[in-house]
Amino acid sequence: MPLLSSLRNLGRKSAFQDWPGLIEGYRRWLPVSERTPVITLREGGTPLIPAPAVAERIGRGVKVFLKYDGLNPTGSFKDRGMTMAISKAKEAGSSAVICASTGNTSAAAAAYARRAGMRAFVLIPDGYVAQGKLAQALLYGAEVLAVRGNFDQALTIVREVAERYPVTLVNSLNPYRLQGQKTAAFEVVDALGDAPDWLCIPMGNAGNISAYWMGFQEYRQAGLSRKLPRMMGFQASGSAPLVLGHTVEQPDTIATAIRIGNPANREKALKVRSESGGAFNAVTDAEIVKAYKLLGSQEGVFCEPASAASVAGLLQQADVVPAGATVVCVLTGNGLKDPTCAIENNDAAFHPDLNPDLATVAQVMGF
Ligand code: F0G
What we know:
Elements: H1 2-11, H2 22-25, E1 48-50, H3 52-58, E2 63-68, H4 78-91, E3 96-100, H5 104-115, E4 119-125, H6 131-140, E5 143-147, H7 151-164, E6 168-169, H8 175-181, H9 183-192, E7 198-202, H10 207-221, E8 230-236, H11 241-244, H12 266-276, E9 279-283, H13 285-299, H14 305-316, E10 326-331, H15 339-344, H16 358-365
Parallel strand pairs: 2-10, 3-4, 3-6, 4-5, 7-8, 7-10, 8-9
Antiparallel strand pairs: 1-2
The structure holds ligand F0G.
């Protein structure tokens, strides 16, 4: 009976639990105090999604999960770092922030800075930022400076600007960024009940891999996990300074988010690799696109090309994954960020220019 069941529901706790954002969710792990104004869009709390189609390709009882950080408020993991960086900048009395960005950092910086009533200056490589990200920076109200150069050049400039002028740098050189981003590792352990055996993650400036490692270590030290994962970092083969061991002057890849030749967190990343017994490998654009299409068409998960590098890397390293291992692949950004890439890279049946009548539609459908 509808009335009875709705009365019963009144006394029952809903399965839905509101998530307060990661600063409140993980407050005791973060460098905040009662004086810190919390600038939040309720970021974090993203799902860990099983990936049976990827797991089937690996075989040998390996379990694969996707940490889908594309479901953050501005569509990437950058929101985790930005809620912290902007809250601390606000606490320190700053009225403007600046970053260099391949797109996602600029979107997140713009959203959080504007919400905090601050100016947001973003330097982007002209012509190499995906449509969705540029749209976000503009709409959120950033002051967008598109430079004729790449990300590495833009980062050099913003570091100098922040040294000379009263503007806070919110790239991952800002230590609060990594503090916020480490919460993704907490969430993975909270969801699995322990750390995974492998963490596969794309690397650009290498801030995120460093943040995850910090999070896994803190939880392990607190006794909240029994083990630590091997950190498996992947770069696009045309932009793979950490794999090659030297700077790449002209980085190039379809995954524009990680089109970086001189990573700012190079030393941290190398330390993560040795401490975790991990490995860094390069994946080609073809491998990235294959994984990107597999995730969309077999798992129902739409990520941006840079994110698919984590799954491309896992598939490439399939033979060395231990049998029965639990693997988490980090999907750093939402597929909607880069619609051009999806439209140009899919195996869908698209039938344009049809007559608007039943006979035509039925014929195309094969009836
Ligand atoms: N995935 C996506 C979708 C990214 O946007 C980035 C970095 C990375 C992976 C790599 O993370 O730099 O911490 O190793 N994007 C930066 C930006 C550079 O400007 O949005 P990282």
